[in-house]
Amino acid sequence: MFNGIWIPLVTPMRGGAVDVSSLEALTDRHVASGIAGFVALGTTGEAALLDARERSVVLQAITEVVAGRLPVVAGVGGIDTAAFIDEIHRLQTWDLAGYLVSAPAYLCPDQAGLIWHFEQIAQATERDIVLYDVPHRTGVGLAATTVARLAQIANIRAIKACARERFAAFGTLPIAMLCGNDDSFLDCLRAGATGGILASAHVCGDLLAAVQTLFCAGKGDEACRLFACIEPVVRLLFAAPNPSAIKAMMSLDGSISAETRMPITPAPDTLLRRLLVARATLDELRASMPAYGAVES
Known about the structure:
- It is a single chain.
- This protein has twelve helices and ten strands.
- The protein is of the alpha/beta class.
- It has one domain (4-288): TIM Barrel.
- The strands form two sheets. The protein has an eight-stranded parallel β-barrel with strand order 1-4-5-6-7-8-9-10, surrounded by four helices.
- Helix 4 (111-123) packs parallel to helix 6, helix 9 (201-216) runs antiparallel to helix 10 (220-236) and helix 10 (220-236) packs antiparallel against helix 12 (269-288).
- The longest helix has 20 residues, at 269-288.
- It is globular, with a radius of gyration of 18 Å.
């Protein structure tokens, strides 16, 4: 299951509230696009800024629209392991394939503490667990030896890898690796990744899927050329705090509002103008490339 391009869905907002109708329309559009799955309530979904009621609203909207057609994984983060487990128990209500679980933030436990943390979480549910190695947010990274040990647990099935320096080590382990660092996607594929959870897939999922299709078909040079064309746009999407640039680019066609929740500030007008050019660049690239059987954006 953990392969291909997954979308960590943004949470559309309007007037300070979750824009449910836009979220439903966005979800439905991506279900039809051919993506591999969804991550709800991730960093790109501004989950840390949503209260418990809003998180429930978001999950209800996504799972009702998806209706079992694709897997949905929910993000779970925080500081206290017991709170992680409480949240997982609360989320059992919805039709989820599993949970994307980070290390405890701020505490910076050692590797033994990380093993204990993930073991407790794996024991709390029969659903699949995707480990989330994101040290620039949590303050601590998962060592390859730690992941190797955790991979022996039956429901720990994959890892979202964001630290380029550990791609090669993770790629040798008996666990699916999904790239979580958009501009390193091709490097992660070279290290053995089975796909990616990529925020940029909101606007260029078809092209990212084409990169993977080419790479897996042994056409590495073509994959490299295509990714080189996409990469400047991908970098631009992270030129402001995530997900403000992504929301801004999506707002250009009116599909959602560019609104974010403070302290995530909206993308400035100068960036919006650059995103408008980037959108045209993607459209020109699509028009000039052959059909690789990739998902539609």
